[in-house]
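Quick one: structure for this chain?
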Amino acid sequence: MNNAASDAVFAGSMPELYDSCLVPLIFSPYANDLAIRVTTLKPSRVLETAAGTGVVTRAMASALPANVDLVATDLNQPMLDRAVAVGTRRPVRWQQADATQLPFEDASFDIVVCQFGVMFFPDKVRAFSEARRVLRRGGVFIFNAWDRIEENEFAHVITTSLGVLFPADPPLFLARTPYGYFDRKAIADDLAKAGFSAVPRFETITERSRASSARVPAIAYCQGTPLRNEIEARSAGSLSEATSVSADAIARRFGDGSVDAKIQAHVVMVET
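Got it. Here's what it folds into:
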């Protein structure tokens, strides 16, 4: 399996499961945080890359004044289709776009914002360079990235349990991609290579991830992310078993009934 290709594929039922399960589980508190940070900067034009199903877009559409131009992009059209179907409180320009080849003019935005998308960029330096290119002088690139997987307990438990289920070939999507780009020095170095001369500011934020049952995070991660591609590639019918094994492992760790686990991420801000 081509990991680089499969890690970025959100298709089929993934967008709906991602939005209905994973967004409230881990993304919502960080989306609200980013929206507040963007609003504080008082922009007139904002570009969002890797917008996914629009959790940050919706938060910004609610927080920003109506006269602020908000453009939301994603590589995967099915994710944007879900975002459009859910809707926003005011008009947003939705556009399919590759973050490493943005179809916008130089110096055309005050802020580029990206929530938990940079980890998926196959060429992070090029994507960061594109963000810098479309920013006006004095503009801000703001994004977040998950901390190491050990600091994100549901993801860590699921990855460990799937390693037991598939010992010869464990599915490592979570550790490799969404939780694989956490080193501050590596991020700062990539930003510098992309042409940002300012020193990036980092803030690590810890939140809680809560669900009504252990099965909710198991479905969210195993069926609502590209981890599903890896599981299904291993054997027919393995998705149901992998989901059940993950749910059982979460229940053993966090108890029956509602579950509550730690999540942790870095917020990064850098000026042009």
